[in-house]
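Homework help board

Subject: predicted structure for assignment chain

Our instructor gave us this sequence and asked us to write out the predicted structure in token form, then describe one feature. I got the tokens but I'm not sure how to describe them. Can anyone check?
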Amino acid sequence: MAFRLGIIGLGKIAQDQHLPVVAKNPDFELAAVVSSRGGHGEVPAFRTPAELFRSGLALDAVSLCMPPEPRYAIARDALDAGLHVLMEKPPTPTVGELDAIAAHARTKGRILFTTWHSQYNAAVDEAKRLLAGKAVSRLHVSWKEDVRHWHPGQEWIWEPGGFGVFDPGINAFSIVTKILPQPIFVATCVLETPENKSTPIAAKITFKPSWEGEAKLTAELDWRQTGEQSWNIDVETADGLKLQLRKGGTELHVGGTEVIAAPMAEYEGIYAHFAELLRSGRSHVDGAPLRLVSDCFMLGRRRETEAFF
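My token output:
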């Protein structure tokens, strides 16, 4: 029997990914949507999460696809209503809220799944396997894209809690924290911030290793790149292994030779994993990417740049 799912928030990511992926996954039945901007076909629609939770409609789980600021309260109410919860990335605007909602899910005996879509690629899994047990000597992340293309008219991303360039940058961090055999920490960070915005449009980060030995660990994030987008991660190890992840983690090159180039099916992987979690009764909460972003803001030095419109 399929799990009855409600999707809360029908913005760009829900329209582009969640709705079509759920429609073709036999483990799920779309049973409700919540949006202030209208419904989806013949599916029961509600204007607010509270209306849905009061409706008595039979549901098993909800996917939260709204911007991160209100997610803690909505997730708490969903758990209190007896529902399992999938949270789009980033799950919450703060580490404290993520820790609290994970604890609340345990108290309620419900499943909580924090999704990081870039982790769901075969190339990422293979990179993790190849790096297991090795000492990393170099890491460089180059994550550069065009904000006007990916977030047209979305002003929330420029407000506190909206993450700015770390909205895409956290995707890179989610890959890094998955594939590296040991944690890294933020050492320094420069946050290039438009004079008329609250969140950065670019960032340069230096990390430090948790392991002994020298390692050059850096990242460059930029939201001003037009033309071809750059979503690249390069890793070298002390014994000479060189890995290059390209196109957001969908391609893997080893020593300059392409070994994996798979079509993107990240949200298919997310919902396949969610079905497994629901059947097994296990939660999956990964806070590592959010902690790195939080530390960048904690240690970051603001450098004001020209206004962005």
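Reply (TA_rk): Your tokens look well-formed. For the description, you could write something like this. The chain has two domains: 3-114, 118-262+294-305. That's the kind of observation they're looking for.
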